[in-house]
Structure formats: structure tokens, C-alpha cells
Amino acid sequence: MDRGHRLIRSRAAWAAVAAVPLAFLTLFFAWPAGALILRGFHGDHGWTLDGFAAVFDSARTWRAVWFTLASAAASTVLCLLLGLPGAYVLYRTRFPGAGALRAVLTIPFVLPTVVVGVAFGALLRDDGPLGWARLGGTPAAILLAMVFFNYSVVLRTVGSMWAKLDPRLAQASATLGARPLRTLFSVTLPTLAPAIVSAASLVFLFSASSYGIVMVLGQGRYQSVETEIWFLTTQLLDLRSAAALSIAQLVIVTAALWLSGRAQARMTRALKLQPETVAARPLSLGRDAVPLAVTALVAVGLVGVPLANLAWRSLHRSGELTIVNYTQLAGQPTLGATLGGALRTSVVTALAATLIAVTLGVLVALIASRRPRRPAGRAALSTVESLFLLPLGVSAVTVGFGYLITLNRPPLDLRSSVVLIPIAQAVVALPLVVRTLLPVLRAIDVRQLEAAAMLGSSPLQVLRRIELPQLGRALGLAIGFAFAASLGEFGATSFLARPDNPTLPVLIFRLFGRPGAEMYGMALAASVLLAGLAGITMAVAERLRPREVATW
Questions:
Q1: Domain-wise residue ranges, the chain
Q2: Are 315 and 325 in contact (CB under 8 A)?
Q3: Is the dihedral of CA 325, 327, 330, 332 positive or negative?
Q4: Bridge partners of 46?
Q5: Rounded to an integer, what distance in angstroms lies between the CA atom of residue 145 and that of residue 206?
Q6: For residues 455 and 107, which has the higher predicted lDDT (pLDDT)?
Q7: d(C-alpha 347, C-alpha 425), whole Å
Q8: How confident is the model at residue 165 (pLDDT cuts 50, 70, 90)?
Q9: Which residues form a coiled coil (predicted)?
Q10: What is the C-alpha to C-alpha distance for residues 243 and 240, in angstroms, rounded to an integer?
């Protein structure tokens, strides 16, 4: 009976813990997004599907849907073709500087999408290094930026599993007479299938929601589902059509999330079957020439050139080497704001968002990592985890606009409050924190927990002595992810930032959208500052990454 009482008290305690993040998610995500969608289906004479029919009768809508799906699919294919050779070179072989190269190739993923758009815009414009290719303002420019942004997802996700792949599998195949290429396709790639599928679904997800990239590089000629939602809500105030597109986007991205979750679970089980360490063999310039050449081309051409060109052009004005872009940006107010004010707003709001996201993420990770014996309990925890990944599947534009129409009256009249931006950024960062912390908790051997309980430790003592110390090992990386994501968040913030107090990404977008060499130069300088801040944040966090967190 006493054991039954303890079990009831334990379940009640965990239910109380779960209530906190669930209340936050309901109040600041489900309610605003749901209210916007429901309002879109409510006309002057009650509930109607006219908006749904109207939006999907529009050729513009189908162009946006087609462009979103086609660009995301093309980006996924290119990232796999380029990322698999890189994963082999950087995780299966060893050579001097491999760790540094892995860190450099990680930089694009932590850059705000608006900075990625500005970097490729500077590279491909008529007076840029690749202006002769006439790719500026074309779908190819958007696709290149997507691949630049998502390449490291494949690199890290597949590479982390490839590094632990038992070499005896390939050796047995070679012993039986299989050529290296046949071994690759018949043994290695099928074994890596869970990691490949997980990486592909994540790349598709991130490419389909590259709001900042399409906004900057599309130049109004190409629309994705997200930019079309922004256009319908802010320019036409057509909430019914925006609601229909929000649902369409939710269906697309939820499918990608489900596929990614299934593949990640399979990959986690597969990784546990491998040895803890597998020695990488020395890089061979002869045998590894093809993957090495592909990796070098990506490192120099796709990653190095845009970043170097962004920094170089930020130091030029009218063809002359100068720091005037930085001095003007740091001097008088520009477009009603100053660099110092925008930087201060960005850092303060990102810190507040990080505090919220990490606090809630710890609670969610602790709940989702429970190990109930009954299938119903495991299914319930899987549902909880999926709920907190949903913000990845809903446009930040939808959430931001939803705030404006729901949090605009007492007792939650927050439209003009400074707390709304960090709350919106925390909603975006929370899924990344959960995905970072969960693998560490799930890596704890269940026998260790059972042994502690058998020796008389209460659930609270097990939590304090075993789980929380393990969780603390991943907090540095979680904090870095949350801060970098919040710092570069643009979708929801573009709705909520006041004209006289923008964040740095919003200021960059405003500068980039204004004509003139002066505005363009300051946009480049601000992009370099934001990229440097995000890169330094993740470089520090990466040094604290525990080995259980193999992917993002």
C-alpha cells in the first residue's frame, strides 16, 4: 500500500511539473496560432470554408506551395549528395585540422537566415564576385543559400553515426570479394539509413521554413508558403487565406517531423549497438580523392566564399577599402534606430528567451525521458514530446501575427510590452533545447536507475543524484542553441519589434530593403556583427557538447 501511495504521489508530482511547460505552450503558442486559424475560417455570417476554397483556387497560392516543396526537395537532395562525402572524410578518416574544419562547416547552420540571405545577395548581385553568373534574384540563389544553411545537418547527423560504424562490416564484405563501391551501396549506406533519413527530413523541414532566405533573395518574385502567409496577413489582411496556408504548412512540416522522429529513434538504437570508440583510419589522398575533393569544394566554394565575401564587402564603400559602414552604423540613428540599441535589444531579449526556453526545456526533457512500463504510458510521453516540437511545424509569422490579435486585451494585453519578443523567441528555441537535452537523459542506463531505487533511494534522490548531474552536461550546448536561435529569430520578431527599437535581424532586413550604397553597406556590416556573435556563441557551446548529443 505504501508503495502504491508513493507511486500516486510520484505521478502527481510529474503531472504538476508537466503543467508548467504545457501552460506556457498553450498560452503562447496554441492559443495565438489557433485563434488566427479559427478567425480565418469565421466570416461575417458564421463559420465558412470560403477562404480555404478561395486561396487554393489562386494560381499564386499553388506557385508558393510548389516553390516551397520543390526548393525544399532540391535542397535535401543536394545536401545529401554533398554531405555524405563530407561525413565520410570528416568523421571516418583522420588528418590534421579535421576538428577545426568540422567547426568551420558548422558555422552556416547557426547563422540567422536573414544573414544567409544577405551573404548570398552580396555574392550574386551584379557587382559581386559571381555577378557574371546572373543568378541574383533567381531560384538558384535561394537554393544555394538553403544548401549553405543546411549542409552541416547532413554532415553532423550522418557523420556521428558513421564514426561509430563497426569497420568489420565493410571488412567482411571486402573479404568476400566486393569492390569498395559495391560495399558502399550494399553495406555501408543501408546501415546508415536511419541517419540519412533523419538528416533528409530535417533538411526538408528547415528548407521549407527558410523565411528569411526567401524574403531577402526572392525579391518579391518568388514566394514560399511562409512568405505568402506574411503577405496575406500584413499586406492584404486576408486572414482566411492565411489560415488555409498555415494549415497546409502544418501538415507538410508535421509529416517531416514525424519522419525525423522515427528515424532519430532508430538511429539512437543503432548507435547503442556500436562500440564506444572506433578508430578512424588515416586519410589517403589516393583512395579518398573523390570525397576529399567534394568536401574541399564545399568548404571553400559553398561555405568559405560567401562568408569571406560578406566580411570583405562590409569593409568597402564605392570600391574603396574603408570602415565607414561600421562607423556610420555605430553613429547616428539609422531608420529610427541605432546599432547599439538594436544590439542591446537583441542580446537582452535573447538572454531572456534563453532563460525561459532552457528552464522549460529541462522540465520537458525530464518528463519525456521517463520510462513507463505500460505501452499507454510510453505513448503518452511520446505525445508530450511531439507537442513541444510543434513550434517547428508552424510558421513563426503565424505565431507573431497571432500574438497581435490575441494578446491585445486584459488580462494579457502585451502588444506593446517588451516581454512579448523574448516569449516568441523562447517558443522557437524550446524544441531545439528539448532535442539537445533528451539524448543525454535517454543515454542513462536504466539498470543504474533501478539499482539506485532498489538500494532505497527515493525518486527525488534518483533525480538529484543521477539524472540532474547528467543533464547538466548538456546545458552548455542547450544554452548556446537557445541563445543563437533567439538572437537570429526573424519571423515572429518582424511582427512584434517596434520601429524605434528593432532587433538586429529586423534592422538588417530594413537596411537591405532600402536603396543606396550607404544602406547596403550598413546592412553588410550589421550582418557580419550578427554572424560573429552567433558563431562565437555556438563555438563556445560546442566545446561543452557531451558525446551523447550526436546530432541537432
A1: 52-89+136-281, 324-552
A2: yes
A3: negative
A4: 43
A5: 12
A6: 107
A7: 12
A8: confident
A9: none
A10: 5
CB 230 within 8 A of CB 404: no
Average pLDDT of the chain is 79
Nine-digit cell string for 223: 514566394
What pLDDT score does 46 carry?
66
Amino acid at site 113: T
pLDDT > 80? residue 548:
no
Identify whether the C-beta of residue 243 lies closer than 8 Å to the C-beta of residue 36. Answer: yes
**What per-residue confidence (pLDDT) applies to 1?**
45
| pTM (2 d.p.) | 0.80
**What's the CA gap between 446 and 113, in Å, rounded?**
40
- pLDDT above 80 for 313: yes
d(CA 253, CA 248): 9
Q: What is the pLDDT of residues 104-135, one digit of tens each?
A: 887 788 777 888 888 898 888 888 888 888 88
**How far is Cα 211 from Cα 230, in angstroms, rounded to an integer?**
9
Cβ contact 425:345 at 8 Å: no
Q: DSSP secondary-structure letter at 500?
A: T
Instruction: Determine which of 38-42, 205-209, 262-266, 383-387 has the lowest per-residue pLDDT on average.
Output: 262-266
Residues paired with 470 in a beta bridge? none
- Whether residue 425 contacts residue 485, with contact meaning beta carbons closer than 8 Å, is answered with yes
Does residue 313 or residue 13 have the better pLDDT? 313
52-89+136-281 placed in CATH 1.10.357.10: no
Q: Say how far apart CA 161 and CA 269 lie, in whole Å.
A: 11
Please give the sequence-ordered ranges of beta strands (E in DSSP) within 163-280, or none if there are none. Answer: none
- pLDDT > 50? residue 540: yes
Helix 139-162 vs helix 98-110: crossing angle, to nearest 10: 130
What the block records as the C-alpha cell of 457 is: 533511494
Residues 417, 135: Cα–Cα separation, whole Å: 42
Q: Which residue has the cell 574603396?
A: 320
> 3-state SS of 470-497?
HHHHHHHHHHHHHHHHHHHCCCCHHHHC
What residues contact 312, with CB distance under 8 A and at least 6 apart?
A: none
| Separation CA 424–CA 422 (nearest Å) | 5
Cα 375 to Cα 139, 209, 270, 372, 509: the distances in Å are: 47, 34, 22, 8, 49
Amino acid type, 537: T
H helix or E strand, kind and range, residue 320: strand 320-321
- Is the bond leading into 546 cis (omega within 30 degrees of zero)? no
Q: What is the distance between the alpha carbons of residues 130 and 446, in angstroms, rounded to a whole number?
A: 55
CATH number of 324-552: 1.10.3720.10
Q: Which residues contact 431 (CB under 8 A, 6 or more apart)?
A: 388, 389, 390, 391, 392
In the numeric block, which cell numbers belong to residue 1?
Answer: 500500500
Tell me the DSSP string of 162-192.
HTTS-THHHHHHHHTT--HHHHIIIIIHHHT
| Exposed / middle / buried, residue 279 (Cβ in 10 Å: 0-12, 13-18, 19+) | exposed
